[in-house]
């Protein structure tokens, strides 16, 4: 319920960040308990480029703010700039006595938040920070010897599951708002570029949409999740990641919503995937250097190549390897990519093309609507073989076999590469192996309307293994 404040109520300011929701928002609830609330959003211009979300994420945020502002009946204040300058100003302007926000885990943001909390406290303001985006606070989980976990299974089984259960979700608080004056900056829908309008056809954004998506997943996706989640053309993944990334829904809501809604195996598998998200944030908190440095130090000497042309062809889906190209075009068109395909394209970039994982991480940062620094960096390092609990480097995905296994009827490829849709299914996975007559009958002319493979899968695999053998040899000297 929303009401408006009388003149003399004590004032709390809630600073919305990646928690664009009213339900199960512990920090917002703390603001509501205190008194009249000033809801604020700051377009933070101080985050360094390698931690700042890119274009697709920011597009989603703008739309999400419109939805949140609607829920707040037009009272969300919108500012742009440095929060360390803006917040003390706002505290004075509104006579704020409590400031609340949801914890963030990006290293630069965390460091800034600590300084900001100190300076606000010095102004006589009570600062209330709450974990609202993780099931378990990363600071509370440790090995028996007090050091952080480095491997997922013990982290989840012995650390998380042995700790107190996650908070049960809170209802939306009753909010008494300080009304926004017409002279104060509010949320304005921004003009959108052509690619943004196209993205907009793929998604419904905001807290209500997140719950609708969850309900659909519970009804049609969760049963069969454990066996179906690896197949991009099947409906078994939730596609809730962008809603989680913007905090339109909390992981606690998902954790409890799935209970009893499918077989124990499906529920456990889904919760384990949520726990991978926890693990990524946990690693980022305890090993913040992983934003730029390999988790496994021997990879510092890895002979990554630099090749802008190869990189562009990967980005545009012009590698000549159909599952890679279909995936990269799906990413561009929808701002999203199925987990199996993220692994396939990341493996292709870092192993068959030998390009640095940071090149791929940067492209995903710019194009994913669910971009999350922790999950993106940890997953890229995981696929590249240099991360925590990583897939061994020498296990190199063969993208043709991956396509045969996980897109068995070739329908995902046909959706995003219409130029291959007329080929018989097996030829869609590796068109260069089909006879010229088969290709011509399907209207496919390699090198003309679809590229020849830019690398030989066999030779590039051997080259990657040789590069790995060199760093192994040099570090075991
Ligand atoms: P579901 O299968 O429905 O899983 C439910 C939730 O669990 C997801 O929404 C997500 O929050 C979490 N989850 C599932 N798998 C993983 C995983 N492997 N790691 C971490 N969390 C997981 N996820 C992001 O949210 N942001 C990123 O920037 C991101 N970058 C990635 C980069 C690479 C190279 C790879 C291999 C994976 C990346 N992931 C990232 C993880 C994963 O691919 C997505 O979270 C998942 O595909 C989202 O789809 P979903 O919501 O349908 O997942």
Structure description:
It contains 21 helices and 7 strands. With 477 residues, it is of the alpha/beta class. The strands form 2 sheets. The chain has a 5-stranded parallel beta sheet, with helices on both faces. A two-stranded parallel sheet has the order 1-7. β3, α2 and β4 (77-81) form a beta-alpha-beta unit. α14 crosses α16. The protein is globular. Bound molecules: flavin-adenine dinucleotide. The site of flavin-adenine dinucleotide has 28 residues, from α9, α11, α14 and α16.
Question: Layout of SSEs?
Answer:
Layout: E1 2-4, E2 11-16, H1 26-34, E3 36-44, H2 55-71, E4 77-81, H3 83-94, E5 96-102, H4 107-122, E6 126-130, H5 152-160, E7 175-177, H6 194-200, H7 207-220, H8 225-228, H9 241-245, H10 251-257, H11 264-286, H12 308-316, H13 322-334, H14 339-352, H15 357-367, H16 373-384, H17 399-406, H18 411-416, H19 425-429, H20 436-441, H21 457-475
Helix pairs in contact: 3-4, 11-16, 13-14, 14-16, 15-16
Bound molecules: flavin-adenine dinucleotide.
Put the structure in a nutshell.
With 477 residues, the protein is α/β, with parallel strands linked by helices. It is globular, with a radius of gyration of 24 Å.
Unreliable runs: none
Rough shape?
globular
* Rg, alpha carbons: 24 Å
> How would a crystallographer describe the biggest sheet?
5 strands, parallel
Strand content: 5-15%
Helix content: 40-55%
Features:
477 residues; alpha/beta; 5-stranded parallel sheet; two-stranded parallel sheet; globular; binds flavin-adenine dinucleotide
């Amino acid at each position: 319920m929303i009401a408006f404040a009388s003149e003399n109520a004590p004032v709390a300011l809630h600073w919305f960040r990646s928690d664009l929701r009213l339900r199960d928002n512990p920090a917002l609830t703390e603001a509501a308990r205190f008194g009249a609330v000033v809801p604020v959003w700051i377009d933070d211009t101080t985050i360094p480029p390698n931690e700042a979300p890119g274009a697709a994420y920011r597009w989603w945020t703008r739309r999400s703010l419109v939805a949140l502002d609607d829920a707040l009946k037009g009272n969300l204040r919108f500012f742009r700039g440095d929060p360390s300058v803006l917040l003390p100003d706002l505290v004075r302007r509104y006579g704020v006595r409590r400031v609340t926000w949801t914890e963030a885990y990006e290293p630069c943001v965390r460091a800034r938040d600590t300084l900001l909390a100190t300076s606000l406290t010095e102004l006589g303001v009570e600062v209330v920070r709450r974990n609202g985006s993780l099931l378990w606070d990363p600071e509370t989980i440790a090995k028996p010897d007090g050091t952080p976990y480095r491997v997922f299974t013990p982290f989840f089984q012995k650390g998380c599951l042995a700790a107190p259960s996650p908070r049960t979700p809170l209802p939306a608080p009753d909010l008494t708002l300080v009304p926004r004056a017409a002279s104060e900056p509010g949320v304005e829908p921004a003009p959108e570029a052509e690619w943004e309008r196209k993205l907009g056809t793929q998604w419904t954004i905001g807290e209500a949409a997140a719950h609708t998506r969850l309900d659909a997943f519970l009804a049609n996706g969760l049963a069969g999740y454990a066996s179906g989640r690896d197949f991009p053309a099947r409906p078994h993944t939730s596609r809730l990641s962008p809603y989680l990334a913007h905090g339109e829904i909390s992981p606690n809501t998902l954790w409890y919503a799935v209970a009893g809604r499918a077989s124990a195996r499906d529920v456990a598998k889904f919760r384990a995937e949520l726990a991978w998200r926890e693990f990524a944030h946990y690693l980022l908190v305890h090993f913040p250097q992983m934003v730029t440095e390999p988790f496994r130090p021997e990879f510092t000497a890895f002979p990554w190549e630099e090749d802008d042309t190869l990189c562009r062809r990967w980005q545009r889906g012009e590698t000549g390897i159909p599952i890679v190209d279909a995936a990269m075009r799906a990413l561009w068109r929808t701002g999203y990519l199925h987990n199996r395909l993220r692994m396939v394209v990341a493996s292709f970039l870092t192993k068959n093309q030998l390009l640095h994982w940071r090149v791929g991480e940067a492209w995903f940062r710019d194009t994913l609507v669910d971009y999350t620094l922790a999950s993106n960096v940890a997953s890229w390092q995981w696929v590249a073989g240099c991360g925590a609990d990583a897939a061994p480097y020498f296990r190199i995905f063969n993208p043709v076999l991956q396509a045969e296994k996980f897109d068995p009827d070739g329908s995902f490829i046909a959706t995003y590469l219409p130029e291959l849709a007329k080929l018989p299914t097996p030829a869609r996975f590796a068109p260069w192996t089909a006879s010229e007559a088969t290709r011509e009958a399907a209207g496919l002319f390699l090198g003309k309307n679809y590229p020849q493979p830019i690398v030989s899968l066999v030779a590039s695999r051997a080259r990657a293994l040789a590069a790995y053998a060199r760093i192994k040899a040099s570090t075991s000297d």
